[in-house]
TrEMBL record:
SUPFAM superfamilies: Winged helix' DNA-binding domain. InterPro entries: ArsR-like_HTH, TrmB-like, Tscrpt_reg_TrmB_N, WH-like_DNA-bd_sf, WH_DNA-bd_sf. Residues 22-74 form the Transcription regulator TrmB N-terminal domain. It holds the Pfam family TrmB. This is Transcription regulator TrmB N-terminal domain-containing protein. PANTHER family: HTH-TYPE TRANSCRIPTIONAL REGULATOR TRMBL2. CDD domains: HTH_ARSR. It comes from bioreactor metagenome.
Length: 263
């Protein structure tokens, strides 16, 4: 029977701790309040011994509980005694906190958009980083949701896994009817690439191989992706920003017109 009572007390203590947490009060505050509740009139010295906390800390806890109206401090002879308010007081405190939270939430919905007009932060700009071959593939797959893709690809990657993926990717592009414009080099590998994947809506032009690099970039929708293959390592960054994408698209189209004009 004694063990059952102890288990029930511990269960109630744990449940009370959860309630105190919702009021931003810690475990020791729970124990402090319980000691006041169980012992009736008590003192700081007695509570300090019961819960194993220094008197100086007990005074800090007491101030918090007094401010919330959970514990009263009353004269008792030459000393001051502590008396806990009934547990029902916790319900009113929680209800008030709930009301305050709802008011703050409604206020936030109204005020924050107005404050936002003074912000210099462009919340529409997102930057994502990718590392490793499997991660880089996700950039390519994301472009398959676009209607048009611009590609500046002056690299040559000797990686069978990646080459197989590009073959899969290009076939998906063609099957989905996505319009593409690609700038590649006139290397033997890229010449074969042009022969294999060029269609009426997938236009590929070339520039001299001497301009080859180890970084490609892709443009679609409001996104720009830079993909590096330096020293066989795969890394990429995707910038999602309408203004940046528009600027890069203008540069690409200018370069495209210059190349086709020369040819």
């Amino acid at each position: 029977m004694l063990i059952f009572v102890m288990i029930e007390k511990n269960k109630l203590k744990d449940q009370l701790s959860e309630i105190f947490k919702s009021l931003d009060l810690d475990q020791k505050s729970t124990e402090f309040y319980l000691n006041c509740l169980v012992n009736g009139k008590t003192t700081i010295n007695q509570i300090s011994k019961n819960i194993g906390v220094a008197r100086s800390t007990c005074y800090l806890i007491l101030e918090k509980l007094k401010n919330l109206g959970l514990v009263l401090e009353t004269p008792f002879g030459k000393k001051r005694s502590l008396l806990a308010e009934p547990p029902e007081k916790l319900i009113s405190l929680i209800e008030k906190k709930k009301e305050d939270s709802l008011k703050a939430f409604e206020l936030a919905k109204t005020v924050l958009p107005e404050i936002g007009i003074y912000s210099n932060i462009d919340v529409n700009t997102k930057v994502r980083f990718y590392e490793g071959l499997e991660s880089i593939k996700q950039i390519y797959l994301e472009t398959l949701e676009a209607n048009k893709i611009l590609v500046f690809c002056l690299t040559k990657i000797e990686n069978k896994n990646f080459e197989d993926f590009i073959d899969y990717y290009e076939k998906k592009l063609i099957a989905k009817g996505i319009v593409t414009k690609e700038i590649v080099t006139d290397s033997e590998w890229d010449t074969e690439y042009r022969r294999k994947y060029s269609t009426k809506i997938n236009t590929i032009i070339s520039i001299p191989q001497k301009n080859s690099t180890e970084t490609d970039y892709m443009l679609w929708d409001n996104k720009v992706a830079f993909i590096s293959f330096m020293k066989g390592k795969f890394a990429g960054v995707v910038i999602e920003d309408q203004e940046i994408a528009s600027f890069e698209r203008m540069r690409f189209e200018l370069l495209w017109s210059l190349i086709t004009k020369e040819k």
